[in-house]
Predict the 3D structure of the following.
Amino acid sequence: MTPINPDQLIVQLTQWALSFLDSYPLVAVLVAILLSTVPLIAVFPGCFAITTWLERKGLARIQNRIGPNRTGPLGILQPAADGIKMLLKEDIVPKTSDRLAHFLAPVVLMVPAFTILSVLPFNRNMIPAAVDTGVILFFALGSVSTLAVFMAGWSSRNKYSLLGGMRAIAQMVSYELPLVLSGVTVIMMTGSLDTTKIVAQQQLSEWIQSSNAGLQCLGQIIGWNVFTPWGFAGFLIFFVASLAEINRCPFDLPEADSEIVAGHLTEYSGFKYALFFMSEYVSAFAINGLSTTLFLGGWSGPNIRPPWSDDPNALLIPGFVWFFAKMFALMLVMIWIRGTLPRLRVDHLMGFAWKFLLPLAIMNIFVGGFYYYAPRWHGIPVVGWPIGFLVMYLSYECIGRLNRGPKTAQRVYHYAS
Amino acid sequence: MLGIGILKGMVVTAKNFFGSFVNKRLLPTIQYPEAGNSVTLFSRNIPFLVYDNDEDPLGTMRCVACKICEKECPPQCIYIVMEKDANGKPAKRPKVFDIDISVCMGCQICVEVCPFESIKMDSTFELSTPDRFEGLLLKREHLLKSNTYFHKIHPDEAQEVDDRLAAKQKKPAPTPSTPAA
Ligand code: SF4
Ligand code: SF4
């Protein structure tokens, strides 16, 4: 048996368990599938529960309140109480609704939300579905949620639901472009659509395999795409577009409660509403997981080789710790943004996607290409880095300034001073 | 730089977030039943009737049943019946003085219009009752509270009122009936 690596413990355990089933290949396949999917279905609803609690507490503190504190210590059991409340509520379906579509919408939203999780590499050798075209699969399945949201809006036969659904389509289709284009830069640089390869490309293997602990640590970080000009810009574009893609503040127009009740969720109650709610958070996790994979080095983080191991790839801290840490950090930033920014107006929202993010993302692709071919000095991008950064910064400022509307005259108050 | 406003806003919310853990002013919530209440010297909610002598509440109440407050109360929640003595002469004190606190909106207009300084705003607030009709109709007996109590809840205002009453009593000496009588 191979020596035990802390970071590969779960993988090795799985392989060991499966080795008993060698003589029953069919059962082994089934068990392998169960072993990789059940944890997803178990872990992510748990993350969802923790995040709702974090969100309530965090928003409360931002607004100088205490937040939930009656259910358990610090209100930690609040998600459980919410869940029970949701399950006990009556499921009301409007009389004139399209019953089948109304019933299917939460399911259609939830299935892809969980499915796209399976192309994310949580650790080395720990990817539920190692697909060669993982990124494409992610974006393709991720856009199914647009359909689900519109199904919900259409089938409710409620004008607010329909408005919400239409807003959702317009918004998600528009923001898909900058989202994918900013990811394209990474794919271009890696030359692969495989998420595992994208992570591997962000690790400096010579440094990691050297004997110096500091170098091992640094080698896991320094290669992250976010530290390159195109990666930094791409990460920001990706993050903003993903906010819109999953209908989070300040892009939560499809469910803007001050304008259109609750948008496509208006006619949903009880368990179906809970499903919607959960799918939204799970897709938020998924998209944060993807931006972690594409830009933040996936499961790599400050890490050293365990002293007892001579395997050059062994690591002390399991990679999924870093993966989840980064994913939650992005989630916290989303909560922070929700506590800060007001909702955009519809025309501003569309303008922001088409006139600002999209040109910037296209510019980013060119900068990525330049960075790739620019001459290097001992492997260090001495030309590509500063020039790429400058070009990205200038185009950010220029596109931003071009987008400024005509200056309105300063309002003059005649009677009040 | 473009977008600096967003970052400034984020800093503000972050300050509020972290400040709420260290700065009492940034977390003003009072966990009411467990940790005290928020009654201050400026709290006002429903009116009460003032009497002067702690031994004799009914004898020394200031109200003369002039019914001005009853007429002025915007939601009409005061009901007053004047007491009559044996000869049917008005006794210048209320026999019935009811305030329906389910209707009272705490506007303090009754206090402003009363010429005899007899009705003042209270700051008590734990008034819930299982009986929503009788329990919320406060009778004369419930409404009567001593001047000492008034001094306790709103000391400055009570002192002012006392000074005013004393000044009034000194100047026009031979008034047949003083308000306090
Ligand atoms: S406070 Fe206002 S509403 Fe209440 S009894 Fe006095 S006048 Fe009426
Ligand atoms: S409380 Fe004042 S205004 Fe009202 S009846 Fe009594 S004396 Fe008159």
About this structure: The mean pLDDT of chain A is 85. Residues 271 and 377 of chain A are 59 Å apart (CA to CA).
